Every structure is written in C-alpha cells, then in structure tokens.
C-alpha cells in the first residue's frame, strides 16, 4: 500500500488531503481510483489509513479509516554523523541509513575531508538529501522522516556531543586493537536499562575516506565519545556508517531477542 508523508495541516479529524507531487504520483503513476486506500504519515510517529473520495489535478481528498501508531521506529534514537564524503556517497548513507532506522543525519567537515565544500550549493544539496530521506522512509514504511542537518564544522560537532547519551566514534586503530563496537554497546545497554521512560540518544561518528586525524579522536574522547572499531578490516566510509548502524539495531533489540 502506498505511503506518503504529509504536513499536520493536511490531516483533519475525518479527512486527509494529498497535494502536489504526492497527489500526482498517486493518481498518475499508481493510477489510484476513488475507494482505494493509502497511508498518510504526519511525521510524528503515527499513521492514518485513508480512503480516496475525490481526485482532482494536484489534489486528492480521502476519508479517515483508521489512526494507529507506527511500529517501524527503532527504540534507540540514532544520529549518524558522517564526514562529508566524495561524490554521491552521502546519498547512499542517507538512503540506506533511513531504511535501517536512523533518526537523523549530521554531515560534517573534518581535517581529512577531501571534498571541496561549496556553501553556495548548500541549500540545493540539503533539499536533495531531504528528498532522498523522505522517499526512503516511505519505501521502508517508516513513521517519520529522518532529520538532515546542514553541514557543520568538526568543532561544532564536538561541542554537540554532550547532548547525547552515548557518542561512538568509529576509529580503525581501535579495530586493530580489538576494541569493538559490541562491547561499548552492550555496556551502555546494561547501564541504561533503568531509564525506560525515554529512548536513548546515540551519536555514531564516521570519518572521511582518509580516516580521522588522531588529534580529532582525542578531542572527541575529551567530549565524552567512546572510540570503537568495526572489526579488523578497513571499511569504506559509506560502509562503516551502515555497519555501525546495523550493530546498534541488533544490540538495541531491533532484530528480536
């Protein structure tokens, strides 16, 4: 069944309205007809099953059949902080990371970032990244669209680390020493077990193609981050983010057990 994210103003007590590209997609691409149903998500973690009552150019009106909570969100709120990689690698991280359950993405610039960052293109790229996240969230039947922050500096990222319950910085030297992500996650899970009133906020920090400068790791540790390895192999930057996210999903109980 088709799923669309809508603004809160598009969902009323007994009516849902699709507009613009979403309405055109449902009508022209999916060839929807009156009486058929779709799901509207307001981005707050709930979803509405709606039945189409009218189809007009650029606008579809539907009646509310059922409101229900979304069950597709991770119990831990995970933000992926990714040093800006070359090409379209960040698009891959956002798309696949959204499918895997990330709640937010935070691109940043670090010492070994090789991309020539152009602030003038920022708005256009942010728009594209957010569209990718929205489409991936719809495909994965998510209840919310992950937040995509503007590209920030390393200094700004380090200063933000205190806002999280756990910050993990993926560092290949820890992998060589055998200090793995599993140990850090298991220890955190046991220590956080007594606070069941809210979801833990976890920050995963992944470096650029050339890895982190050792001084950057020291700065992160000084801000409370835990350096962890992802095994004894060297992973590409876009692979590291997804492997780490999958490990968090497993340890949080997302995959059962």
Q: Could you explain how this protein is built, in words?
A:
This protein is of the alpha/beta class. Helices cover 35% and strands 26% of the residues. It contains 8 helices and 12 strands. The protein has helices at residues 20-29, 89-100, 122-139, 154-160, 172-177, 181-192, 214-222, 237-251, and strands at 3-5, 15-19, 37-41, 46-56, 59-69, 77-83, 104-109, 147-148, 152-153, 166-170, 201-206, 226-228. Strands 6, 7, 8, 9, 10, 11 and 12 form a 7-stranded parallel β-sheet that branches. A 5-stranded mixed β-sheet has the order 1-3-4-5-2. The radius of gyration is 20 Å and the shape is globular. The two termini are 29 Å apart. The mean pLDDT is 90.
């Amino acid at each position: 069944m088709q799923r669309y994210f809508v603004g809160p103003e598009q969902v009323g007590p007994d009516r849902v309205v699709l507009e613009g590209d979403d309405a055109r997609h449902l009508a022209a691409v999916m060839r929807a007809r009156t009486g058929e149903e779709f799901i509207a998500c307001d981005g707050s973690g709930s979803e509405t099953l709606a039945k189409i009552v009218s189809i007009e150019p650029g606008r579809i009106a539907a009646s509310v059949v059922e409101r229900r909570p979304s069950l597709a969100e991770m119990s831990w709120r995970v933000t992926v902080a990714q040093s800006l990689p070359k090409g379209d690698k960040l698009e891959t991280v956002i798309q696949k990371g959204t499918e895997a359950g990330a709640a937010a993405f935070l691109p940043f610039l670090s010492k070994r970032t090789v991309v020539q960052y152009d602030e003038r293109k920022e708005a256009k790229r942010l728009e594209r990244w957010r569209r990718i996240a929205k489409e991936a969230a719809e495909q994965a039947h998510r209840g919310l669209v992950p937040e995509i922050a503007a590209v920030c500096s390393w200094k700004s990222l380090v200063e933000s680390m205190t806002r999280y319950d756990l910050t993990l910085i993926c560092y290949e030297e820890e992998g060589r020493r055998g200090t793995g992500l599993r140990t850090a996650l298991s220890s955190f899970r046991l220590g956080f077990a007594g606070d069941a009133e809210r979801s833990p906020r976890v920050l995963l920090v992944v470096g650029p193609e050339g890895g982190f400068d050792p001084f950057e790791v020291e700065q992160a540790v000084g801000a409370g981050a835990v350096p962890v390895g992802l095994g004894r192999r060297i992973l590409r930057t876009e692979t590291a983010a997804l492997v780490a996210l999958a490990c968090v999903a497993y340890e949080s109980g997302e995959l059962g057990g």
